[in-house]
Design brief:
- It is a single chain.
- The protein is of the alpha/beta class.
- It has 2 domains: about 160 residues, Rossmann fold (3-Layer(aba) Sandwich); about 90 residues, ProC C-terminal domain-like (ProC C-terminal domain-like fold), CATH 1.10.3730.
- It is built from 12 helices and 8 strands.
- It has an 8-stranded mixed sheet with strand order 3-2-1-4-5-6-7-8, with helices on both faces.
- It is elongated and about 70 Å long.
- The two termini are about 40 Å apart.
Length: about 280
């Protein structure tokens, strides 16, 4: 595959490993993927399990890559980008950041020049191939580079492009933090089921399967979630009583407030990590 882009993952944490393993599972050539990390033993273990080339030399991997995926923690990003800047050629290379709260302008400042940069906000279900990611590209990113980015992120789920970088904050509030909202709902339902007399094991099985089934129905149905809810909410029935109780407790307003808080914090973090 002569025209297959060479991808280097700088930082091989859980998210980076999920993406590279997803690419390999989808048939991406092993010899086109490399990864670097700070610990040689961890890199050796990754090489043994995936068959890719690994290293602790960030500069060397950047120099040989067409696509550089930055997967380190946000607080480490500034130092990392400055250290690899001499190996980055903005005219030919694409930089993808999967670090939360890092503005593309910050990356360009650390690089010392404008570049083709994609800011990505993935989420933790990427670890099981069911992720949802938001993507934003600088004007220097070509259509081919955008297609490459989509291909990379679709290896662990689905990805959507936004036109404005500040929309990534909204993506963070919806899908970036969203899995925890559903975990919280599951947790509350399991506790509620236990209070109704079910064992923890049975409660967990029922709640998790119900969540998975509801999500699958919503994905496969031509109806929107509101219509699906209405279809199972019979007048004066059990579901209606539960829904009314949620509404009486201000459920929608609480969701709005929670997502607004996540959105605001995402904006704060972007300013916190600015150079």
């Amino acid at each position: 595959m002569q025209n297959t882009p060479r991808i280097s993952f700088i930082g091989a944490g859980n998210m980076a490993q999920a993406i590279l393993k997803g690419l390999l599972a989808a048939g991406y050539p092993q010899d086109k993927i490399t990864a670097s990390g700070r610990t040689q033993s961890k890199m050796d273990a990754l090489a043994a399990t995936t068959g890719i080339h690994t290293s602790t030399d960030n500069l060397a991997l950047c120099q040989q890559a067409d696509v550089i995926v930055l997967g380190v923690k946000p607080q480490m990003m500034g130092g990392l980008v400055k250290s690899i800047a001499p190996a980055i050629d903005p005219s030919t290379q694409l930089v993808i950041s999967v670090a939360a709260g890092i503005l593309v302008s910050s990356i360009e400042t650390w690089l010392g020049q404008p570049a083709a940069i994609v800011r990505c906000m993935p989420n933790t279900p990427s670890l099981v191939g069911l992720g949802a990611a938001g993507l934003y590209a600088t004007t220097a990113v070509t259509d081919q580079q955008k297609a490459t980015t989509s291909h990379i992120m679709q290896a662990v789920g689905m990805a959507v492009w936004v036109d404005q970088e500040d929309q990534i904050d909204a993506v963070t509030a919806v899908s970036g933090s969203g899995p925890a909202y559903y975990f919280l709902m599951m947790e509350a339902m399991i506790q509620g089921a236990e209070k109704l007399g079910l064992s923890t094991d049975i409660a967990q099985q029922l709640v998790l399967q119900t969540a998975a089934g509801a999500a699958k129905m919503a994905q496969q149905s031509s109806q929107i979630p509101a219509q699906l809810r209405q279809a199972v909410t019979s007048p004066k029935g059990t579901t209606e009583q539960a829904i009314n109780t949620f509404n009486d407790g201000g459920f929608n307003n609480l969701c709005d407030a929670a997502m607004a808080a996540a959105h605001h914090r995402s904006q704060e973090l972007a300013q916190l990590f600015k150079p």
